[in-house]
Design goal:
The protein has no helices and 16 strands. It has 188 residues and is mostly beta strands. The mean pLDDT is 89.
């Protein structure tokens, strides 16, 4: 058992029969009254983010979580299939366990978080950035560069990303997986 002084970003705790990850926290000591810890916690089962306040010294139940490297293989009606890079075991996971499945490309490396108590997968974490090829986009109009305008583009995974006007079909772009936003063009 730990207490509120052990709270840090990324810590996994058991609360109300669910496992949560600490997204952000703040220790607060008001001028009047007892100290407390204000947190934002994310459910590892359904992805919902909640605000929760712990009183100072409150006991918390820490869950040991292990991060394992997996390679994405394919998806079908059974779910998304991954292979463990060390044991070569294959595992099938539901779409709700993935943060942004629209950017998954075959042979992409991802991290799967496992609960070590019962060896069950909790969630799949994508890399922060991924490089994808533009398969279709309208050509940019010459001279239309006065403003920072974006146009829709389809990437090789089928997802749609908003890109600047100078991006053409066949270009490689770096995309942030959490927001799905264009970061930069990548040289081939």
């Amino acid at each position: 058992m730990a207490n509120t002084s052990d709270i840090r970003n990324g810590l996994c705790i058991k609360l109300n029969h669910d496992i949560y990850s600490i997204v952000e926290f703040q220790h607060v000591k008001p001028g009047k009254g007892a100290a407390f810890v204000r947190t934002k916690i994310k459910s590892m089962t359904n992805g919902r983010v909640l605000d929760h306040t712990f009183s100072a010294g409150h006991k918390i139940d820490v869950v040991r979580v292990e991060r394992r490297k997996f390679q994405y293989l394919y998806n079908d009606d059974m779910g998304y299939h991954f292979m463990d890079n060390e044991t070569y075991e294959q595992v099938s996971l539901e779409e709700k366990m993935l943060e942004s499945p629209q950017f998954l490309k075959e042979s992409s490396q991802v991290d799967v978080l496992y609960n070590t108590e019962n060896n069950t997968p909790l969630t799949v974490e994508m890399p922060q950035y991924i490089v994808l090829e533009i398969t279709y986009t309208e050509p940019g109009v010459r001279g239309d560069t006065a403003t920072n305008t974006l146009k829709p583009a389809t990437v090789e995974t089928g997802a749609e990303v908003r890109v600047p006007l100078f991006i053409n079909t066949g270009d490689l772009v770096k995309v942030e997986t959490k927001s799905g936003s264009y970061m930069e063009r990548v040289k081939k």
